[in-house]
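Incident log, structure service

09:12 report received: a user says their structure output differs between two submissions of the same chain.
09:20 pulled the input from the user's history:
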Amino acid sequence: MGSSMNFKAVRRLLRVVLPLAVLFWLVPWIAAIFTVCGLIDFARHKRFDSSLIAKYFSGNGLLTWLLSPINLFFDLISKRHAYRMQLDEFPEEERQEIEGMLQVFKDRQDEILEDLKSRMGDKRRGMVFYRWYDERGDQSIPEFNRDFKYIKTIGVSIFNGQEKTSLHFGPLRLTIRVLYNMTARQSDEIFIEVNGDKHFWHDDPLFIFDDTIQHRSVNGEEGLRACVFVDVLRPSAFTGLQNVCVKIFNILLSGINRVFYKNWDMLKKTDKATPAPGE
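09:34 re-ran on a clean worker, output below:
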């Protein structure tokens, strides 16, 4: 077992080292940019171990590393913040848009949960998108069938009992992730872990964080866990540029978003879509 694990680690390392060595030989300045940007980006983690290094540079963080020059550019044009944020750190207009969206989930929580439970069945993990990078998805909630200035993705992820994700990295730091747990229960076995720190949903159902930092979600109890997840623009003086970038990445990522959610069942609604008020 030990030799097999060592061989896998060496093979994974070679997948990164060999292409970099060739790139340094052919185009050294490009290789230098990706190396330096990757190291700066990786250093945002507060801990450093071989498993984290391997996952970032050659595992499920590889895309995050490849996008590190772009992500560092977004850092430059955005308000500086830690990997966690509080709602009151957002500018007033953006905060009000976020609060209004969350209020819809609070006001219609029972109705939404009942609908999603009926779609979920015995699936292990379910996902529904009401919006995806500014593009409309499931239109069953009229309040979401409109344009938003700051909110770019609205969805709900659902776990059945004893379900969890592996440690992973989000790819893009154009937005920041807002989570709201609709089924918070008094249990330390239901949490999100980011950068090695656990946030228990019974302490606060709202959690805002940079999802390009390594994280995982865990439902260690029986019963459903439903969590709203929303991507909002990072506070910035360049909102117009950010929205242009959203449109570009919507085009680039639309064909591969199924790769990000390959372990999830997309919960489709068969009923006729409900139009937005006034449409």
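09:41 both user submissions now match this output. Likely a transient worker issue. Closing.
09:42 reviewer note: The CA atoms of residues 134 and 148 lie 8 Å apart. The chain has two domains: 2-77, 84-266.
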